[in-house]
Amino acid sequence: MKTLEIIGFKRANLDSAALNEIREAGNVPCVVYGPGIPEQIHFYSPAILFRDLIYTPEVHLVELNIEGTIVKAVLKEAQFHPVSEVLLHADFMAYTEDKAIKFEIPVKVTGSSPGIAKGGKLEFKTRKLKVKGTASTFPDFITVDISDLDLGKSFKVNELKPQGFEILTSPNVSIVTVGIPRALRGKKGE
To answer: Any idea where the Large ribosomal subunit protein bL25 L25 domain is (predicted)?
Structure first.
């Protein structure tokens, strides 16, 4: 799995006026907490550094460089402005290589579905799956092969064979379905 570096600068003043100044200067207030960190670290980073972390379908591990202190972390939560959708705040969770963490990994579809060839439409029911394991065992994405999906059929979580990590998403959840368009529904009943 890819790792991105985010450079941060510690902040001592946590009041709302200081937060507004940080945001007006084009930065994002952040916090990191978790194993190996005695108490949470409040910091800020330039907003441009989050482009490859947030605005992409890929997932990344993060190496935070906070004034020379290196912390391995994952993005736990990102808060956005409700109207402008500007990134307002980011929470990171530190991890160690020997302890399992929970993470969301995107789904990648491969293969050609016979149902789509007949006019069906591929419908994503979920684009990410919640997993648990050590960071070194996480793949960049979870592959779903739709080669056997016919019209009206689904690929469920329980059909996956994870290696080195555990899938926490319910086994009965459909990942993708080949939907039957209205035009074909009428033909089936004839």
So the answer is: 10-92
pTM: 0.76
3-state secondary structure of 182: helix
φ, ψ for residue 68, nearest 5 deg: 95, -15
Q: Model confidence over 35-79: pLDDT tens digits? A: 888 889 999 999 999 999 998 888 889 999 999 999 999 999 999
Token reading at 154: 């689904």
User: Does residue 188 carry a pLDDT above 80?
Assistant: no
Helix/strand/coil for 12: coil
Q: In this structure, are strands 128-133 and 166-167 parallel, antiparallel, or unpaired?
A: antiparallel
- CATH 3.40.50.300, applies to 3-96: no
DSSP string, 58-122: S--EEEEEETTEEEEEEEEEEEE-TTT--EEEEEEEE--TTS-EEEEEEEEEES--HHHHTT-EE
Domain ranges for the chain = 3-96, 102-189
Residue 187's pLDDT band (cuts 50, 70, 90):
low
Return the CATH class of domain 102-189: mainly beta
Pairing of strands 61-66, 3-10: parallel
For the segment 72-112, what is each residue's pLDDT rounded down to a tens digit? Answer: 999 999 999 999 889 999 999 999 888 888 888 999 999 99
